[in-house]
Design a protein that fits this description.
A: D-Maltodextrin-Binding Protein, domain 2; 2 domains; seven-stranded mixed beta sheet; B: alpha+beta; Beta-Lactamase; Alpha-Beta Plaits; 3 domains; five-stranded antiparallel beta sheet; 17 strands
Chain lengths: 460, 560
């Protein structure tokens, strides 16, 4: 509490007694200054959330948007960058509590769930503006809605796929033929054994870098192997989990056997994708499975946040994921752009999405980020015009790529899968507890959980 | 010597009738009345200002504290928010909410417990987390798992649902509920501490119609206390945090037990107020006038109520008022005494002196005059008195000898007759006529005669006793009035002889030694006459007889 100022009180009292101010009122509290009331401004403010694990994508986006922002000086764009790991919960909460932005980037597998929550605006009447489904990669377009619902809730922004990066110099030194090495799992394993321990510029390389349970892509890392072995996450009718099939188990076991056979730096399993990619760039591993962003980074000078000066930058090539017993498969993902159902700037939001969907913006975004353009014509042009480049290599990967089913409950299922695959890596790291039965038990647990989720959603 | 009560009354009355005293008292009363009015006015003004200033300051403090508490409550709200949107938790609850094998159920329960534990990492909030099934049939999980209420531990669905706080949960209007503080009533059973709780319903965000359970976050009130105590209040003031229903959540007053209902009358005032914050005064609690300042938090609609005793707030003002009054009365008394003294000196004493002189004049002393007449109304009065005495003297005195004249003498005799009648006394009148005076006057001139008369007058005056009077009634005729003490006129004769002897003494006039004698006729009241004229005639006749008998003699009147 404020203490009473006795001296002041005395003075006041005497003053009052003397009558000088006996009839005046007590000093009125000062009115706050009324300056600073904002003028009626005509600027349009748009909120946009994007998802990235670093700030590069934010700057890349700004660069691509610059011509549009210059042409629309009244537009103020607030961009918030979410990390991939907590993004799902953050987005679900924002949609459930109507606190979301105007424009929202969504991982391709998340669109059905958020749309099913009623969180996304129906873009069906607008998509003809951007060429409709024919203008996009089919694998991307199929992620813009809910399976069995003709409505379009998002527009493909970019695509990505996983392929194998390898050190050409290390392969050469080890006498490995790249054309044979990535033919199938057997040849791949042989090649890995051959290249393991190769020394380049005084650095002894491990054969392959594999990120472990700390990785945001832990699920995406496993699936090429599961698919290659003939396994899948759900049954063909998407009614039940199928992850504990023998084929899926074999795929997983093959993948983790690379660790068991000492082809992987043991510390690698404590790392995430980015750290494993850095190891590859620095020459600590000869092979890594990654997406097109790594090629972009290896081409970008260090001063701009890239790794063009790293040992790998001049000595790498991209090859397809080796084929498993039932064929070659990789994960094709990417992101879509959506407009929140409760946005009151839908028109302005759509204008911006339309700009990002234009051929020019798609091309320039692909050029700065390395992601694949989702627009078919841009994708084709890049692949055709630049044979031998990363884009061409990933265009090939897309051709044998697969994605996850567009189910509303996929978001929940994905969380379970991420946790279970993380648990598998935990088992692998604690060597004593690692065996086939334990892995199978984890898969059984995953199946129980996924089935519970499916059951929950199919009730009613 | 002891004075009687009447004496004191007389003395007091005597003092009080003094003008200076009366004026002083009047002045004192006036000043005290004026000072009192001003003091009361000033006191009220000061109280108003002090109240306003203190009220503003207290409101600021309470608002600041309230915002701090809101921040804390929002943290808990956000904590629950984080949980209810955590897909991992939701998945576990989905699994536990679906019929499962015991193994799957047990394993998922274990995983859920680990997940709850992971929520508390790096969160030094000291809270406990419990998840109930959405129908409150059982506790799904709790952290720490050793803190479980007996009814919960037994897994008795009926008992759980009968718990008062469980029945009070109503998520219709709000997703997060803040529950009153209480001891041993939630899941945590630490008997030495009271807890409040934050509850939130968990639904599947993708399908809000599916309820997955209820999360209860219990927080020890000591956490809140530690957070608020520093910023809430200081000194004699206190604070209390009340739930929406008016139950004590936390308080600076240890006697107010968490969970108890606060003073109803105060709550009524608080809850009928439409604003989120404000002040009021009440004497309904602790039997003292208190100022109350409140702030309503958002979320939770809890009240933070700060109070401070009016008495202690106003004590300095009252102290000041008493000091002022004491000083004012002292100064007034001093001023009144000074004024009284000055009045006494300037008005009282001069008037008293004037009064004394007037009384002397009244007693017959026509020579009395006032002196030191100041230059003011009292001085004017003194001068007017002197002038009046001059006039009176001229009317009753012989200007040559300054002895009383015949008019004076007659009035004196009449006065003496009245006194004698009253006291049964007698007096003598001596009629004196100088022998051979005409002769001296004719030969030496009337100047010499006048001088002789003046000297004779002085001698006569010297012969008079204290109570005697001598007057010159004509040329060389003098009359002496002698009150008699004895029954006969012998003492009158003695005086007459003394006079004759004194007059016989030679007088030096213009260098000549003159010797005169006097013939005296004496008459005595009441034997010789009953009035003044009669007495004078009788004495005059006796004087003629003395002349006839050879002069220089005294003859008593003999009626024929």
């Amino acid at each position: 509490m404020k203490t009473i100022n006795y001296a002041r009180l005395c003075a006041l009292f005497l003053l009052l007694v003397l009558g000088a101010s006996a009839c005046t009122d007590a000093p009125a509290p000062q009115q706050p200054d009324m300056h600073g009331v904002s003028e009626d401004d005509k600027t349009i403010s748009l909120d946009m959330w994007i998802i990235s694990n670093d700030q590069k994508q934010y700057h890349d986006l700004l660069e691509v948007l610059q011509p549009y922002l210059d042409a629309n000086p009244d537009l103020t764009l607030q961009i918030k960058v979410l990390d991939w790991a907590p993004a799902w919960s953050t987005i679900v909460k924002a949609v459930a509590e109507d606190e979301g932005p105007d424009i929202l980037q969504l991982g391709t597998t998340w669109v059905p769930a958020i749309a099913a929550m009623g969180g996304l605006a129906d873009l069906s009447p607008l998509v003809d503006d951007i060429g409709g489904s024919e203008a996009y990669l089919p694998s991307s377009w199929q992620t813009t809605g809910i399976l069995g619902d003709p409505k379009v809730y998002a527009v493909p922004w970019y695509a990505d796929a996983r392929a194998v990066y390898y050190r050409t110099d290390a392969f050469e030194k080890a006498g490995v033929d790249p054309d044979r090495a990535f033919a199938d799992w057997t040849s791949f394993r042989e090649a890995m054994h051959q290249v393991n321990g190769t020394e380049i510029d005084g650095t002894v390389m491990h054969a392959i870098g594999i990120p472990g349970n700390q990785d945001w892509d832990v699920m995406q890392n496993f699936f090429p192997w599961i698919w290659g072995a003939g396994g899948d996450v759900l049954t063909a009718d998407s009614k039940e989990a199928a992850l504990n099939s023998e084929a899926a188990l074999q795929g997983i076991l093959h993948y983790i056997s690379l660790v068991e056979e000492d082809l992987v730096d043991p510390t690698s399993l404590d790392k995430n994708s980015r750290q494993a990619e850095d190891d590859f760039a620095e020459g600590k591993s000869a092979v890594i499975i990654s997406g097109p962003w790594l090629a972009s980074r290896l081409a970008t000078p260090e001063e701009q946040g890239g790794q063009a000066e790293s040992p790998a930058a001049e000595h790498y090539a991209i090859a397809p994921i080796p084929a498993g017993p039932v064929g070659r498969a990789t994960f094709v993902g990417g992101s879509n752009l959506s407009i929140l159902h409760n946005s009151n700037r839908k028109q302005e939001a759509w204008e911006l999405i339309r700009y990002l969907s234009s051929a020019e913006a798609q091309a320039s975004y692909s050029a700065v980020t390395g992601f694949l353009p989702a627009r078919q014509e841009v994708f084709d042009a890049a692949a055709e015009n630049e044979p031998g480049t990363a884009v061409a290599a990933f265009a090939t990967a897309v051709s044998y790529g697969r994605t996850f089913p567009s189910l509303p409950e996929w978001g929940a299922i994905e969380t379970t899968l991420v946790n279970r695959f993380s648990a598998i890596w935990d088992l692998v790291v604690e060597e004593s507890s690692y065996n086939e039965e334990r892995i199978r038990a984890e898969l059984d647990d995953a199946v129980e959980e996924v089935n519970s989720i499916l059951e929950q959603y199919h009730q009613q | 010597m002891k004075r009687s009560l009447n004496d004191w009354k007389t003395v007091t009355r005597g003092i009080l009738r003094r003008t200076s005293v009366r004026l002083s008292i009047s002045l004192l009363i006036s000043v005290i009345v004026v000072v009192s009015i001003l003091s009361v006015f000033s006191y009220k003004q000061s109280v108003r200002i002090v109240e306003q200033e203190t009220g503003d300051a207290a409101l600021q403090t309470v608002q600041r504290t309230g915002k701090h508490m809101e921040h804390i409550l929002r943290e808990y709200e956000a904590y629950l928010d984080m949980m209810v949107y955590d897909q991992e938790l939701l998945n576990k609850l989905i699994v536990l909410g679906t019929p499962q094998d015991t193994t799957v159920y047990d394993r998922t329960e274990l995983e859920l417990a680990q997940l709850l534990r992971s929520y508390t990492y790096g969160k030094p909030l000291g809270e406990t987390i419990t998840i109930f099934s959405s129908d409150f049939n059982h506790v799904v999980s709790t952290f720490p798992d050793n803190l479980i209420h007996p009814a919960m531990k037994s897994g008795n669905a009926e008992k759980i649902q009968q718990m008062e706080w469980v029945r009070s949960l109503d998520f219709t209007n709000s997703t997060t509920l803040f529950l009153d503080a209480r001891k041993e009533a939630f899941v945590s059973t630490n008997p030495s501490e009271a807890y409040f709780a934050v509850a939130r319903k968990v639904s599947d965000p993708l399908k809000p119609s599916i309820d997955l359970g209820v999360i209860l976050l219990e927080v020890s009130t000591s956490q809140l206390h530690a957070a608020l105590d520093g910023s809430a209040m200081t000194g004699t003031s206190g604070y209390v945090v009340l739930s929406e229903q008016g139950k004590v959540v936390d308080s600076s007053e240890p006697v107010l037990e968490s969970g108890s209902l606060f003073e109803t009358s105060i709550l009524e005032q608080l809850m009928t107020t439409m604003t989120r914050y404000g002040t009021f005064v009440s004497n309904e609690w602790m039997d003292r006038d208190h100022y109350y300042v409140f702030y309503t938090t958002n979320p939770a609609d809890w009240y933070i109520l700060s109070y401070y005793p009016r008495e202690e707030l106003l004590a300095p003002v009252r102290h000041l008022l008493w000091n002022f009054l004491w000083l004012a009365v002292l100064c007034s008394v001093a001023a009144a005494i000074s004024v009284g003294y000055l009045m006494h000196r300037g008005i009282g004493i001069p008037l008293r002196n004037l009064h004394k002189v007037m009384r002397e004049g009244e007693a017959g002393n026509l020579s009395v005059r006032t002196t030191d007449n100041p230059d003011n109304e009292i001085g004017d009065l003194g001068r007017a008195f002197n002038q009046m005495m001059e006039q009176i003297s001229l009317a009753y005195h012989d200007t040559l000898t300054n002895l009383p004249n015949r008019r004076y003498l007659v009035e004196k005799i009449e006065q003496q007759i009245q006194e004698a009648q009253a006291s049964d006394c007698s007096f003598a009148v001596l009629f004196m006529d100088l022998d051979r005076f005409k002769e001296i006057n004719d030969t030496l001139g009337h100047h010499a005669g006048d001088q002789l008369i003046q000297k004779i007058a002085k001698r006569l005056l010297a012969c008079m006793r204290a109570e005697d009077t001598v007057a010159r009634i004509a040329g060389d005729e003098f009359v002496a009035l002698l009150p008699l003490h004895g029954a006969d006129s012998a003492e009158a004769k003695e005086v007459a002889c003394t006079i004759m002897e004194a007059i016989r003494q030679p007088c030096l006039i213009y260098g000549q030694e003159l010797t005169v004698t006097t013939s005296i006729g004496a008459a005595v009241y009441p034997q010789d006459a009953q009035d003044a004229e009669g007495l004078l005639q009788a004495a005059d006749r006796a004087m003629y007889e003395a002349k006839a008998s050879g002069k220089d003699a005294v003859v008593s009147y003999q009626a024929r």
